[in-house]
Design brief:
six-stranded parallel sheet; 370 residues; binds alpha-D-glucopyranose
Length: 370
């Protein structure tokens, strides 16, 4: 049994989403459990947050597939790091990071490990290419992510490790009141929150459509959190704005922007809703909402099915009527909201809490060493 695991995590670092958030949580894990080191291709929000948490970060340099020289340079940087420091395991997060870095990892005598956060498309060239040097272990964030791997040859060792999500710190009740007041929410109003990237598959349109049919139902408000990161996300956000206008719900739906106070935002809402269009690989935000004691409404798809039980939320089939019915039920039934909010935190910890994560992650890594 290893003591503190000395793991190198390799990732890109130029965007910001679930993987980035999990890596930041890893940096704050109890030092007796792990002492992670991070190797990133890009400087940005992720690297700043890691450095702020005093985690060691090595830059490999910006990699562009179209620029073979940038790939060579980054591989050389990684090889240098692997010579300079001893790691118990080296984990490549995402298939393209694996494609770029599996060879220097293997050359340095490490078993290449892939942590997949996206549902793989086995026909995608990246996967076919990666499987020419198959990972010694493929860690996946859910069953949904694991399933398509069966189509790839050769078969590889797969372990499900739900991503780490730290429990929230205690939230100051006045901060909650202030946030609600800032957005003009009355005490008795029910706030339905969606917090995600502005990607069409995150299902904002399904939520808005359902709210449109609840235009005459009093007592609800909706917050849409997040900020577009790429041009197509900006276009999509504008489309949502027009949709809100034409549904006649502009007074009740607010774009509350990117949140640095996500814990407070979750605490300040009453229901978390994210009706994805297509299967989400995992969906850390569902876990975060459950930690915050909020009932979760979503589609019965992908990771959500493994996360949300009927005790802590409502997962719907793909019809607008079902989503409206779920939202109305939660809006009208305070007792149900209360029951769900009591179950959420323990379920969240069981899925993704630090203890669970450390146990499963360690066991997965040790399965390679065995
Ligand atoms: C990716 C997935 C998301 C998952 C996260 C952590 O961002 O899209 O579903 O929660 O990785 O594994």
């Amino acid at each position: 049994m290893l003591n503190s695991l000395n793991v190198l995590h390799i990732y890109s670092g130029n965007l910001f989403g679930g993987v980035e958030r999990m890596l930041i949580s890893l940096a704050t894990l109890d030092a007796s459990q792990s002492s992670p080191h991070f190797a990133l291709c890009f400087e940005g929000r992720l690297s700043y947050a890691l450095q702020e948490a005093d985690a060691p970060v090595t830059f490999l340099g910006p990699v562009r597939f179209r620029n073979p020289l940038s790939v060579l340079r980054a591989r050389r940087e990684l090889a240098r790091l692997l010579r300079a420091r001893k790691f118990d395991a080296v984990v490549c997060h995402s298939i393209w990071i694996y494609c770029i870095f599996a060879s220097p990892v293997a050359r340095a005598g490490h078993a290449p490990i892939l942590y997949l956060h996206d549902i793989p498309d086995p026909k995608n060239t990246f996967y076919r290419w990666a499987w020419r040097r198959p990972p010694a272990l493929c860690i996946v964030n859910s069953k949904a992510t694991a399933a398509p791997l069966e189509q790839l040859r050769p078969p590889v060792r797969v372990r499900i490790v739900h991503p780490l999500v730290n429990p929230p710190p205690p939230i100051d009740p006045t901060a909650i009141q202030q946030l609600r007041a800032q957005w003009g929410v009355r005490f008795e109003e029910i706030v339905i929150l969606q917090a995600s990237r502005f990607d069409p598959w995150k299902g904002h349109r399904n939520l808005l459509q359902a709210l449109g049919t609840m235009r005459d139902v009093p007592g609800w408000r909706c917050w849409i959190a997040g900020a577009p990161q790429r041009p197509h996300e900006e276009t999509y956000r504008r489309e949502l704005g027009r949709m809100i206008e034409s549904l006649g719900i502009a007074e009740r739906v607010s774009f509350i922007g990117h949140r640095d106070d996500m814990d407070t935002t979750l605490a300040a809402c009453d229901v978390y809703c994210q009706p994805n269009e297509t299967p989400e690989p995992f969906g850390m935000v569902f876990v975060e909402a459950m930690y915050a004691g909020k009932p979760v409404v979503g589609r019965a798809l992908g990771g959500a099915v493994e996360i949300v039980t009927t005790e802590c939320g409502i997962l719907c089939p793909a019809d607008a009527g079902a989503l409206t019915a779920a939202l109305r039920r939660l809006l009208e039934d305070g007792q149900l909201r209360k029951q769900m909010s009591e179950v959420g935190p323990a379920r969240a910890a069981l899925l993704s809490g630090p203890e669970q994560f450390s146990k499963h992650f360690r066991a997965a890594l040790e399965s390679v060493r065995a």
